[in-house]
Amino acid sequence: MKHALHSVVFALFLASTAALADDMPTYKLTMKDGRFYPETLEVPALTRFRLEVKNEGPGATEFESLELKKELVLAPGVTRNLVFYPMKPGTYKFFDDFHPETGQGRIVAK
Amino acid sequence: MGNAFFVVWRESLEAFLIAGILYAWLKANDDSGQGRRALFLGLAAGAGLAMLLGWALLTVQDELTGEALDMFQTATLFVAAGLITQMVLWMHKHGRQMKARLHADLAAAAEKSGHLGVAVVAALAVAREGAETVIFLYGMAQEGDLSALLLGALAGFAGAGATAWLAAKSLARLNIGLLLRLSSILLLVLASALLISAIDRLLGAGWLPPLLDPVWDSSALLDDGTKAGKLIADFSGYRARPALTSLLAWATYWGVVIFAWRRSGRG
Ligand SMILES: [Cu+2]
Predict the structure, then answer these.
(1) CB nearest B203 (choices: A61, A69, A77)
(2) Given an 8 Å threshold on Cβ–Cβ distance, is A72 in contact with B66?
(3) Do A99 and B3 lie within an 8 Å CB cutoff?
(4) pLDDT by residue (tens digit) across B135-193?
(5) Does an H or E element contain B181, and which?
(6) Beta-carbon neighbour count of residue B181 at 10 Å?
(7) Cα(B167)–Cα(B43) distance, rounded to whole angstroms?
(8) ipTM
(9) What is the B232 CA–ligand 1 centroid distance (Å)?
(10) Pairing state of beta strands A90-96 and A35-37?
(11) pTM for the full model?
């Protein structure tokens, strides 16, 4: 019984994440040689979206933004997803905490 | 090399500062020297844990490990913030009696749990910063120039040690009463900064609603996206664009701490 319940909850969880995943626009961000590509990301304001961050190396990187409350350490060759909640129009900065001089970028929500 | 120096310096400094303030605080509170032994044991355990974490992360470089690391970091932030606060408040309440040896049994029991707390906080601080350092250095090592990397890392580590030592030293030069109060306050400020980071992680993961975000924007005054601003943010919990939830957590933390501090001071 407990197992059955678990399976149902798990299936619901999968279904809900799949549903969420479907209607979410995805943007790609590449980290390479201590820089972001692109350095400016334009996203629609007041819309939930997903950011696919890829670290092409060399070296580990840390995608970080205190104002967006995101922090993500990426070993070289790793790709991970971040979900952003609807943002008010404006410019939001992020940086590579392991390469702070060169790794600076911004999200522009319009 | 410059990056290796800066990253290792910053990550180590955070761990060293917690260790350094704990050390100064133990020096004033604990005559037996056992607390300081617990501190060193904790630091060693943390270094071991950091290497284990770094190894696990690099062995399985996939989503799961990344999320496991996130959860570990969020949990350590909460645990460390709670332990530091509990320890400082406990010492404030019982410090006088302990010194006067009025309640020998109570003091002995507290000594034990106090030491465990010191060891755990030190271990967590080292493990958290150490794991990131390990990943960073591993990644840098793939670029090739190993000797420059090693030099930068060692210089960063030594620099962080010297910075923390200077901070603890200048604290120790003050008289005991002032030292006690100052190091207690510094520990509480650090604990509140850890709490804010933990709340940020929950907000970023969508597990907490931000309520109102941001409440203000002071990035023109002090930008937490710059090197210096980030340093201040890490140690004090400052945010240029804080969410209402973070502010509420911060205010609640200080409200509870000040209330407990006053009450234990009277008793
Ligand atoms: Cu003690």
Answers:
(1) A69
(2) yes
(3) yes
(4) 777 777 766 677 888 888 899 999 988 888 887 777 767 776 777 777 788 889 988 99
(5) helix B176-204
(6) 13
(7) 18
(8) 0.71
(9) 30
(10) unpaired
(11) 0.75
